[in-house]
Amino acid sequence: MSNNNKEIRSDFDEYLVPCYAPMQVVPEKALGSKVWDYDGKEYIDFAGGIAVSCLGHCHPVMLDALEKQAKKVWHLSNVMTNKPAIDLAKRLTELTFADKVFFANSGAEANEAALKLARRVAIEKYSESKNEIISFKKGFHGRTFFTVTVGGQPVYSDGFGPKPGAITHLPYNDIEAFEKHINENTCAVMIEPIQGEGGIVPIEKPFLHRLAALCKKHDAVLIFDEVQTGVGRTGTLYAYESLDIIPDILTTAKSLGGGFPIAAMLTNNELAEHMKVGTHGSTYGGNPLASAVGLAVLNEVTSGSLMEDIITKEKLFKKLLNNMNQTLNVFDEIRGKGLLLGASLNQQWKGRARDILTEASRHGLLILIAGPDVIRFTPSLLVSEQEIKEGLKKLELSIKKLTL
After folding, report:
1. Domains of the chain in sequence order
2. What was the pLDDT predicted at 56?
3. How is the quaternary structure described (predicted)?
4. Would you state the pLDDT for residue 1?
5. 143 a known binding residue?
6. SS3 for 106?
């Protein structure tokens, strides 16, 4: 049996469908914001499973919830009433604008449900011709054929034959383009409050507020994709709270389970009534194990001063990255909010984000990229200030190594 990084990585190439190209690092165990690979090397984790591990690795409240639920019931089909799912749904409605919740297993599935609901509402309330979905260039909403088409990155959706129709991609933060295009046949607008895969680009408030007003004018459902921004990531439970906008539908996943697969679509009573019995479903959606862990995560994130701490850590990250840049001159912008941050590479470093990621791993730091030109940081919300300082020192050493 393989028991070191090199052998296990070779087995990956041998046995898995080649749609991923992971690093040579193969984690064996993890705790908090630290990871250890099969060769015994220690890493500081600023990747967080791509904004998933919001409480870090192996947090005791998650372990406790999972163990307790595992001794009761693991799975219930949706022909039965599922108490853990009800408990989590109730808590989500207490903490957000929503009245109703639909559970799924991934962000893509939650977005699929949101898009289907929006189309259903338009057809039942208005007409078959009210079917256009507006989304935004460089957006990302998942990998199902519907959601990958709604996402504004053709590199992910091309090459699979005819795509779902009536989908329009407009420039992000461009209100003139949006005003010119939205019309009576627009049924929904799907948008990320911070474009994640698109480069960590925050939404501009004036753009969003005008967009929301135009959605109301044209009876178009406003869908917030908060798969990456949700569950405290930006310093509020969901990003819409700091934007003074209430969406019609919100999708959440990633951090909701802290690493256990779960997702949800949140909406109001008026829209929810269009999802009648049999119109949509999921075998595993709201799984009791996932729901129990999700509730534990949600309660932990909303307790104490964690939200305020996230903003303090954001300021530290940005300060240290800007200080680093004074010496290295590698970034042209540090952007994002809370602990969803991006460092955009300047002209001299364009296209080298992956090089930095790889070199950082050699120095014991795990980071992400958001396209070829942006370094992305999505650590645990509980990452310590000392770990931030140590991790960014490793990043500085990595970049210096690449300049030699």
Report:
1. 5-58+305-403 (3.90.1150.10), 73-301 (3.40.640.10)
2. 98
3. Homodimer.
4. 58
5. yes
6. coil
